[in-house]
Design brief:
homodimer; 359 residues; alpha/beta; six-stranded parallel sheet; 15 helices; 50% helix
C-alpha cells in the first residue's frame, strides 16, 4: 500500500461511542416512544459519534464532485457522448445541473474538481487536480497505473483538506464521468464477486442490445485484468476510474478529519465500499442518501450492509442525492435539539401506573 | 351515503392531464437523461396536474392534525395511557413534539383540532370540532354511530376550508389518539380483507404478549361488527375512530379544492385509503411521505398501489413524516424551476451523432 494512503488511514479513529450513547440517552428521554423517529434518531446518534458531542446543526455543507473521463467509452458502453463530462462539469459551475439546483435549495455549496477530464480547459470554478487525460480502456488492459490511482486518491484528500479548511460541517460525494456506471459496476464485481448480470444496468439510458454489449465488455475487462479483491487500490486502478479513486480518497480523508460524509447513488456508493474495504472504520462516518435505480444497487447495499433513507428512483449521479440527504440530517438535528423531554406530570398518575410498569 | 360527503365527492375532478404533460415535457428537456430524477420528476408532474400549471414553489404549508380518543383502549390494546392523547395535543401547540419540531424546520404550520378527545379542556391553539368524548370500544359494538362518522368527516372538511382560506399551498395529514394503530389496523383489514396477523403490529411499543391480545381483540371487533367493505363510512363508524374519519374527510376536501395533500404513516395512510375507496380520483392529489415501521404498512402500500419516497423506520404518527415530505416537494419544484435546458451546442456534433440517433 502506498504511503500517502496509509498515512490517511492511520489517522482514522472509530467514532466516539460515549458521545453516541449520550445522544441516544437524550433521544430516549424526549416526548415520544423510544426509537419512534427511526433513522432520524440513528442519524443523530451517528453524528454525535462522529463529532464527539451532540450535533445541533450542520450549518455549512458542500458537495464535492470529482469529474473524469473513462477510456471504456471507446468500447461503446455509454449512452451519452464523452463530451458530456466536460459540458456538465462546466454546467455545475453555472448552477444549472440537477445537483447544482438541489444544492442551492439545500443551502449547500459545490466543489468541482477535474481529476481526469480528457480535454484541457480553463474554468475558474473547477479545481485542476487532473491526473491524466482520461483513463485507458479497461476492456484491453488496466485503466490506469497504480501510481495514477494513488494520485487520484490524493486528489480526493486534497479536496477534503480544502473543505475542512473552509469550515464545512458535512460534505457529500458526487461525480461526473460518462462511462462511470461501467467502471463502478466492474469495481463492484471485483470487490464483492457479484455476477456481472447483477451489477450492470442501463446507466443513464441504454437499449437492451447495448446493455448486453456493456455486460460482455465489463466481463472481458474483469477477466483480462484480474483485479485483486483484497486490494481496493488495485481494483480501482485496473477497472475503475480517476473519479472513483478520488471519491474513495474523499471518504477516507473525511473519516480521518471526523467529517460526516454523505454518499450519493451507485458510483458514489461503490467508492464508499472501496474506502470501507480499505479501512472498515470509515463506515461510521458515511451516511447514505438514496437507493439508485441502477440495478447493481441491491448487491451494493448488501455489500455495504446499509439501508438508504430515500427511495427516489434517481439515476442521475453528480451527487444529486446529497443535498436531499443534508435535509434529512437537518431533521435529525432539529429532533435532538428542539423536542421537549417527556414530562410525566403532563399525563399524571395513570401514566406511571400503566406505562412505566410495562417497562 | 350522506349528503355532506356526497357533495364534497361531487366536487372532485381528476387532475389536469394536459398540465402534467406540459410539466413532463419541460422536465424531458432539462440537462439530464430523461427520467433520471425519478420520483422528484413524478412529484413535479403530479403537482402540475393538481394545480393546472407547472408548480415552481409551495410556499405556505400546514400539517392538519386530528386528535381523538378511542374506546378500544378499554380493551388494553395500547402501550400508552389514554391521557397521552390530550397531553400530546397540548404539546403540539407548544411546539414540543416530533411533528412540531420538524414542521418548524420545514417552515410549516400546524392546525390542531380536537375531533373527539375524552376530556373537556380549553386551549386556544386547538380547534374545537369535538364529535363526542371518545368512541366506544369496538370489540363490543360499533365505535360510533354513522351520524357521528359523518360529523367527523365534516370536521375534516372544515379543517380544509380553513386551510384553503388561509392560503396554504400544500397540507399534510396527521393524528393523535392513543389506540389508533388498533383502529387503523381494523379499518385496513375491513377495507382490504387483509388477515389480522398481517395488519396488526406493536404500535408505539407493545410486548409480544400484548401484541397477541391486540390481534385477538381486533379480530373480535371485526367479527362482532361485520363492517361493509364496500362502504368506507360504515367501516370507519364500526371499527375506526373520529381521527380516521376526520382525516378521510381532509383527503376528500383537499382533492375537491385541488390542494396537494401529504399522507404521514400508517394511520394517515389508512385514512387516505378510505378516502380513495370513496372516490378513486382522490389518489391523484395524495403524496406519500414515508413507509411506517408498523407491519401493516406492506399490505397498506399494496392496497394503495403507491410507493413512499422515504424509508425512515418511523412509527411516531402525529403527521411527523409530512414536513419531511414537504422538503422533497420543494426539491421537485426546484428541479423544474431552476434546472437549465439541455444545450446541444455544449456538446457539439458528436452528441447529435451518438445520442440523438439512439433515441
Amino acid at each position: 500500500m502506498n504511503e500517502a494512503i496509509l498515512k490517511v488511514i492511520s489517522q482514522i479513529q472509530p467514532p466516539d461511542a460515549q458521545a453516541s450513547a449520550r445522544a441516544q440517552q437524550k433521544l430516549d428521554g424526549l416526548c415520544k416512544p423510544p426509537g419512534s423517529l427511526g433513522k432520524l434518531e440513528e442519524m443523530a446518534v451517528k453524528l454525535a459519534g462522529i463529532r464527539g458531542d451532540i450535533v445541533t446543526a450542520l450549518s455549512r455543507r458542500c458537495v464535492l464532485i470529482a469529474a473524469a473521463d473513462n477510456g471504456i467509452c471507446q468500447a461503446g458502453v455509454a449512452s451519452a457522448a464523452q463530451e458530456f463530462t466536460l459540458a456538465q462539469t462546466l454546467a455545475f459551475t453555472r448552477g444549472e445541473t440537477g445537483v447544482a439546483v438541489l444544492a442551492k435549495y439545500a443551502g449547500a455549496d459545490l466543489m468541482v474538481a477535474d481529476v481526469g477530464i480528457l480535454s484541457d480547459f480553463d474554468a475558474p470554478g473547477v479545481l485542476n487536480l487532473k491526473v491524466a487525460h482520461g483513463t485507458k480502456n479497461f476492456a484491453e488492459g488496466p485503466a490506469m497505473t497504480r501510481e495514477q490511482a494513488v494520485q487520484a486518491f490524493c486528489a480526493g484528500f486534497s479536496m477534503v483538506e480544502r473543505a475542512a479548511a473552509a469550515g464545512y460541517d458535512v460534505i457529500g460525494v458526487g461525480e461526473m464521468g460518462i462511462g462511470n456506471t461501467s467502471t463502478a459496476s466492474a469495481v463492484l464485481c471485483a470487490l464483492t464477486g457479484c455476477p456481472v448480470e447483477d451489477a450492470v444496468g442501463r446507466g443513464a439510458g441504454l437499449t437492451e442490445e447495448k446493455l448486453a454489449r456493456k455486460r460482455n465488455i465489463i466481463a472481458q475487462g474483469l477477466s483480462c485484468n484480474r483485479p485483486d479483491a483484497s486490494d481496493p487500490v488495485d481494483v480501482i486502478a485496473k477497472v475503475g476510474g480517476f473519479d472513483i479513486a478520488a471519491m474513495a480518497g474523499i471518504y477516507l480523508a473525511a473519516a480521518a478529519k471526523r467529517l460526516p460524509v454523505v454518499a450519493d447513488g451507485f458510483i458514489s456508493c461503490v467508492a464508499a465500499l472501496a474506502a470501507i474495504r480499505l479501512c472498515p472504520d470509515v463506515k461510521g462516518y458515511v451516511f447514505l442518501s438514496h437507493a439508485s435505480a441502477e440495478p447493481g444497487t441491491a448487491a451494493l447495499m448488501r455489500a455495504l450492509d446499509m439501508e438508504p433513507p430515500l427511495r427516489l428512483d434517481m439515476r442521475l449521479g453528480e451527487g444529486s442525492g446529497c443535498p436531499v440527504a443534508f435535509l434529512l440530517l437537518d431533521c435529525a438535528c432539529a429532533v435532538i435539539r428542539d423536542m421537549a423531554p417527556l414530562n410525566l406530570a403532563d399525563v399524571g398518575e395513570e401514566y406511571t401506573k400503566t406505562v412505566l410498569k410495562q417497562g
